[in-house]
Amino acid sequence: MQKVLVIVGPTAAGKTSLGIKCAKLFNGEIISGDSIQIYKGLDIGSAKANEEELSEAKHHLIDIKEANENYSVKEFQELGRQLIDDISKRGKLPIIVGGTGLYIKALLYDYEFSNETEEDNPYDELSNEDIYKILLKEDPKALEKIHINNRKRLVRALNILRKNGEGISSIKDRQEHKMLYDAYLVGVTLDRELLYQRIDQRVDKMINEGLLEEIQGLLDKGISFDNQSMQGIGYKEFRPYFNKEKSLEECLMDVKRNTRHFAKRQYTWFNNQMPIHWYEDINMAIEDIEKWK
Fold it and tell me: By the 8 A CB rule, do 107 and 42 touch?
């Protein structure tokens, strides 16, 4: 099995710097596992590696999409696996670095995606209750995790059912949830209070580095807050500011609060979904990676 080093954890914990250190120490190349850093022009709010950091190690899946394009976990899975093969064939270590948990799990495990397109929504004439009744009859297991008011997920489940002849729950049940690589999963962590402090400092630093100007530049190019690229934390919270509905201070509080909540969810998700080795001490992480490699 191909060896893959994976570095995950909450935002502001130090994933980028550890990834670059490991790339230098273990002859590696970095594959970004972030759903926003793939977009050109979304640099500051996504905490994208700066020019100096990018020059220290080869990075992939950064700046590969225009800000008005969509990107899916399936596309990430396909591109990521191609890169793992290519990097491994060249005798280097693939290093996945990022905090978008579903992307990383789909890349590493035997995730199978159903036949669907995100644009499909042919059910305008059906209410949520109508779709719910259809699913209750034909794929009741899918409804265990879908609320009747969540129209997007209801429509997606019905799309999959109609296009595949079987429900999303059947497709998931067929998968073994098996790891496809010899992967070592490193989780970068910090004391909770220190992490929250670093999150607040990072948000303030983003403003000082020109986040508002970055967003204004995107808006001037025709990108809107409805685009997928602008749905990430650090961008979407500023819609009310640019619409003159909230002050900058209020929006900054929203970013900091949402980022802290997201960090908490990241811990929970990673702990429940993958066998993570958590480290506060980066040097100890590097020692264990050396033993694994």
Answer: no
In whole angstroms, what is the distance from residue 279 CA to residue 55 CA? 26
Residue-wise pLDDT for 161-185, tens only, equals 777 777 777 766 666 578 999 999 9
Rounded CA gap, 59 and 56, in Å? 9
Q: What beta strand segments (E) does the chain contain?
A: 3-8, 28-32, 59-60, 93-97, 182-188, 277-279
Please enumerate in sequence order all residues whose Cβ is within 8 A of that of 270, keeping only pairs 6 or more positions apart, or say none.
Answer: 8, 9, 101, 187, 276
- CA atoms of 45 and 237, how far apart (whole Å): 11
CA separation for the pair 83, 31 (Å, rounded): 8
User: Could you tell me how far CA 64 lies from the centroid of its own chain?
Assistant: 15
Strand partners, 179: 109
Q: Which of 109, 89, 112 is nearest to 101 (CA)?
A: 109
What is the identity of the amino acid at 137? K
Higher pLDDT, 113 or 283: 283
Mode of pairing for the β-strands spanning 28-32 and 3-8: unpaired
Contact 187, 8 (CB under 8 A): yes
Q: What span, in angstroms and rounded, lies between the C-alpha atoms of 227 and 233?
A: 13
Return the higher-pLDDT residue of 173 and 232. 232
Q: Tell me the mean pLDDT in the region 241-259.
A: 96
45-94 pLDDT per residue, tens: 999 999 999 999 999 999 999 999 998 888 999 999 999 999 999 999 99
Reference 169, options 148, 142, 200; nearest CA is 142
- Token couple for 113: 């995606």
Minimal CA–CA distance to 9: which of 265, 234, 205, 200?
Answer: 265
What pTM did the predictor assign? 0.82
Residue with structure tokens 């008005």? 68
